Amino acid sequence: MIERFDAIVVGAGPAGNAAAYTLAKAGLHVLQIERGEAPGAKNVQGAILYADALERLIPDFRDDAPLERHIIEQRMWVLDDESFIGTHFRSDDFNKPPHNRYTIIRARFDKWFSKKVQEAGALVINETTVTELLRDEAGKVIGVRTDRAGGDLHADVVILADGVNSTLARKAGFRPEIEPKHVALAVKEIHFLPKETLESRFNIHKGEGVVVEMLGKITQGMMGTGFLYTNNDSISIGVGCMLSDLMAQKTTPYELLEKMKAHPSIQPLIQGGEMKEYAAHLIPEGGYNAIPQVFGDGWLIAGDSGMFVNAVHREGSNLAMTTGRLAGETVAALFKAGRPMTAVNLADYRKRLDDSFVMKDLKKYKDLPDIFHANNQFLTTYPELLNRSAYTMLKVDGVDKLSKEREIFASFRDKRSLFGLLGDAFKLWRAFR
Amino acid sequence: MSEPSQPAKKKRKVVLDERLQAYRGVWVFIEHERGRVHPVSLELLGEGRKLADALGVELAGVVMAEAKLGGDEREARHYCQVAFEYGADLCYLMQSDVLGEYRNEPYTRALTDLVNTYQPEILLLGATTLGRDLAGSVATTLNTGLTADCTELAIDPDDRSLLSTRPTFGGSLLCTIVTLNYRPQMATVRPRVMAMPEPQPGRTGRIVEHGLLMNEADIVTKVLDFIADDRRDQPQLPFADIIVAGGRGLGKPENFQLVRDLAKVLGAEVGASRPVVQAGWIGAEHQVGQSGKTVRPKLYIAAGISGAIQHRVGMEGADCIVAINSDPEAPIFDFAHFGIVGDATVILPALTEAFWMKLKRQAALTPQEETA
Amino acid sequence: MHSVVCIKQVPDSAQIRVHPVTNTIMRQGVPAIVNPYDLFALEEALRLRDRFGGRVTVISMGPPQAEVALRKTLSLGADDAILVTDKAFAGADTLATSYALAAAIRQIGKELPVDLVFTGKQTIDGDTAQVGPGIARRMHLQLLTYVSRIVEIDLDRREIVVERRAEGGVQVLRTRMPALVTMLEDSNRMRFGSLPDMLRAARQAVTHWDKTAAGIEDVTRIGLKGSPTIVSKVFTPTPRSQRAEMIAIEDGSAADLAAALLARLAERFPGVEKELAKRS
Ligand SMILES: Cc1cc2nc3c(=O)[nH]c(=O)nc-3n(C[C@H](O)[C@H](O)[C@H](O)COP(=O)(O)OP(=O)(O)OC[C@H]3O[C@@H](n4cnc5c(N)ncnc54)[C@H](O)[C@@H]3O)c2cc1C
Ligand SMILES: Cc1cc2nc3c(=O)[nH]c(=O)nc-3n(C[C@H](O)[C@H](O)[C@H](O)COP(=O)(O)OP(=O)(O)OC[C@H]3O[C@@H](n4cnc5c(N)ncnc54)[C@H](O)[C@@H]3O)c2cc1C
Ligand SMILES: Nc1ncnc2c1ncn2[C@@H]1O[C@H](COP(=O)(O)O)[C@@H](O)[C@H]1O
Predict the structure, then answer these.
(1) B5/C27 touch (CB, cutoff 8 Å), yes or no
(2) For the CA atoms of C103, C107, C110, C111, what is the dihedral angle to 10 degrees?
(3) Which stretch of DSSP H or E encloses residue C117?
(4) Is A123–C29 a contact, with Cβ atoms under 8 angstroms apart?
(5) Interatomic CA distance for residues C76 and C41, integer angstroms
(6) DSSP code at position C89
(7) Nearest CA, atom 18, ligand 2
(8) Global pTM?
(9) Chosen from B32, B132, B223 to mutate, greatest number of chain C CBs within 10 A
(10) Do C229 and B177 touch (CB under 8 A)?
(11) pLDDT single digits (tens) C161-177
């Protein structure tokens, strides 16, 4: 006999966990299926955790979640080959609890989250891959098939939270193939360092953390960014670029990361560390325009698999948790009201999304991916110019400051027409606004 | 073994009960099969000799053998004689018709009896399938400590205790283990970990015979058959003088033939890393390393092997290691004697050719008898 | 047919790193797994159950986190899982471990008599291969180590015939049950549990036993107190000081490299040269 559940959640990343948690708390009979050896076993993220999304699910998560450091300083670096120019913002305000951003290590965090899901009453099985969605004659999703013997299961609704690749959604025709220009390929390493070394290197105390966001020549003109985060006794460092760019330039993000680690401003930060973890992962960065249909008869999509990522602010896990929660709340409300899980009823999910920050933010930046894509000067020419200008300004060499300014201005103009400069500023302003 | 990640801060001084202070002497269990003393026992005698000298006590061999019908004791006495030549001062000899083919029950009983009677402070066994089976049972029966798979043995001059060092955490660390207020201190050592001592022909010693009160009827487990390995054509890796080994870097199973080709020319045994064994390119008896064999050849040629710690612990005792690897950063170059950076599928045939030529030339120059 | 399988949760040694500066092991992030050798024991027990019926009970002594390992064995098809866990067991060496496990297995036997106890060949952290023989001794079970194949079982006569890896060959042994079997690696292939097994495992509770429930009679024989051996020192192996002498020739062919190697071998290693001479 085939077992039946009220809801099946595929995937145990932040999206799936949020959904399963919400459903179990609402009293539904939930099964969550994860492919990895354990939740988070293969999941990749920088990783910054934004407290708000999690707080809405588990208000007291700070009591026992495996949080590495809360962020007190944010650095933005624009790099060329030899130098960087950037801003550092550090404030003791960030030290006041409750903190709102933390570094985490996903493998540990996901395991903790999954424990909460199980405590809430969901049944969780690992090392099991959902291979296919089961559908009735009318096309309604009625369950899943897994790669194990005796592997069919039925449910009123299936929530797909299976990550960026979402083979399931593609196979079912819910989502088109991802276009290379809509995903970034990111690589990341974790380097271990003694806590004391790390804290003195970044000028921080116990529990405090630093984030360095980087752009510029590290991505060799391709659209992408680099990052460096401090964990408790390790540093996460990574870089990502649009897949389409990588393909066009015939380079790998790994090569970029190797160069980046050797950069004279970065190398001293990670020196002496031992690399322990290397991972590559896709990030859906198509933004608002790439979001597919996210609900249908008997199914919903949440998290990366619905392309819910805000690339501009490097937010993904919080969108995943929020969309997962909203999917769960939608289903729970229908369940309570005794209404069937039809496309018409599940459309409520889309409404909840539109009302939340998720869609509002994504809409705001909807043109940004295309702008960067069509204008690679933002990532090559400007960083170099900015850095050279700073160098010119700061070098004490007997040239007066006014002449220096003129020199800088001229160099900007040489590289790019005045008209181009103004146009660029406008484009960026519009996109970020 | 207690939690090895928390080394005791201070050195722990072992204070023995009076009863245990009576335990004196170093023993080596002499393992033998089909008329030959197992080389690991000889290696242990070499090591045991050093310990006994450090303690100022005698080194004894323990020989157990089947009592032959008609009282032919030549075989058992031969084992004792070998033990003397390799350093034993005396041998305890137990003969019984239940001590033929190894079985846990009678051997455990015999060794336990012997220990309780003559009370040695140290008892060493080879970490063979026999030695490990026996050591575990005897240690439990005697309620004493046992350290398995030691790579180094020494005496603490302060309190006469045995310091047994062994790899832990897959070989990435070593730990030294001591036995507290318990005797004897037991340890097993894998074959080929310790060096083979030079025998002293003609050296003799005393034989102390000890009886065993046990009948076949007392023993539950029966040996139905013994399928010797020779019949199955097993490699003799641990004792090979030359080994050519291949790893995952060879790319595909067909390429493993290149390893066999070179081995054939050299009259060498073929070794392998675990991934290629698991992939089924070659049988498990060829695996070198932590979960395979420990080898100690004069020459070890490793092709397409990265040199992971679990492989390394099995072969770093080789006199000379030659590594062929396409990655100049491969860890194996950190401990090999010679390295060639290159594609093993190209280098191996060239080596085969070169060695073949060399051996042929030598054969033409030297008459056969002289080299034998 | 009731089998008890002893398993241990161990750090995956393939993923352990030594800290380059402090020389301590970095356990952080090192995943805990079921001791790989124990899975062969489990699979063998499951096969016997599938053939003869009965139950497979899995037991482990360890900290509360070891429950994960036991849960895994449930999902592979074990019927029951018992975690023997108590602060008093901490710091146990193999002797103290086998004492505690033997006591707990006796408790299990009170519910349903045990025919076979299985252990792995050895653990990858303790690595002594002693716990199996130790349990057998304490429970007066016939001991069958390094078993590569269970040839036959006669439940009526309560006999078992196995092939056992011995030095220089394979012994075929027959003995009486109850017996303790330590399985050799690669003697079988672990199954991929079915979905119903996965669901059952997710629902089923792992039983926790403290020292009383485990039937420990003499508390001086468990944990640190009952352990004759202690670790007095942990250190990193001294790396061989010398890196390999690299044989490289600019624009050299493979044949040139081979010739160069042979020349250097002859020069630096006369022992090897002598060995080669024997073979010409
Ligand atoms: C390098 C990098 C850095 C990032 N940094 C940040 C950051 O700093 N902050 C931030 O908020 N976000 C960051 N993100 C984005 C964030 O990681 C993702 O948005 C988030 O993980 C999405 O969660 P999810 O649950 O949708 O998907 P995932 O976390 O990918 O989880 C999907 C789960 O589904 C499982 N699964 C897939 N298919 C199946 C199947 N068929 N059957 C069963 N299970 C299946 C997978 O094993 C996986 O566990 C980063 C991403 C990358 C790659
Ligand atoms: C509990 C445990 C026990 C283990 N026991 C053992 C054991 O007993 N024995 C053992 O060997 N391993 C053992 N391992 C596995 C061990 O950790 C390593 O994974 C293994 O030794 C790697 O084998 P390898 O060198 O063949 O493969 P890899 O590590 O994949 O190395 C392949 C090498 O080949 C090189 N290469 C690639 N192409 C070429 C080419 N064309 N020409 C030349 N070189 C090339 C590469 O640069 C690389 O260095 C054990 C692991 C565990 C966890
Ligand atoms: N703590 C433990 N709990 C359960 N079984 C164990 C434990 N320690 C060892 N074993 C079993 O004993 C076997 C040999 O272990 P060891 O003596 O540590 O090499 C293992 O393969 C396990 O089957």
Answers:
(1) yes
(2) -150
(3) strand C116-120
(4) no
(5) 12
(6) G
(7) B308
(8) 0.81
(9) B132
(10) yes
(11) 999 998 888 999 999 99
What rounded mean pLDDT belongs to chain C?
A: 90
Per-residue tokens: B236: 């003799």
From the list A228, A235, A247, the residue with the least C-alpha distance to A184 is: A247
Instruction: Report helix, strand or coil for C104.
Output: helix
B120-176 pLDDT, tens digit each: 999 999 999 999 999 999 999 999 999 999 999 999 998 899 999 998 877 777 889
* pLDDT tens-digit map of C36-50: 899 999 999 999 999
**ipTM, two decimals:** 0.77
**For residue B289, how far is its CA from the centre of ligand 2 (angstroms)?**
10
> Quick check: bond before B184 cis, omega within 30?
yes
- For residue B5, the number of C-alpha atoms closer than 13 Å in the C-beta half-sphere is 12
- Residue A122's nearest CA partner among A1, A60, A43, A34 is A34
Dist. CA C19–CA C2, nearest whole Å: 45
B104-118 vs B129-142: helix axis angle to the nearest 10? 50
- Residue A267 scores a pLDDT above 70: yes
For residue A349, give both structure tokens: 């999910």
Average pLDDT over residues A348-363: 91
Q: In what order do the strands lie in the sheet with B269-272?
A: B269-272, B242-246, B299-303, B320-325, B338-341, C245-246
Helix, strand, coil shares of chain B as percentages rounded to 5?
A: 40, 25, 35
A431 pLDDT tier (thresholds 50, 70, 90): very low
pLDDT band at A175, cuts 50/70/90? Answer: confident
Q: What is the pLDDT of residues A319-338, one digit of tens each?
A: 999 999 999 999 999 999 99
Question: Is any atom of ligand 3 closer than 6 Å to the C-beta of C120?
Answer: yes
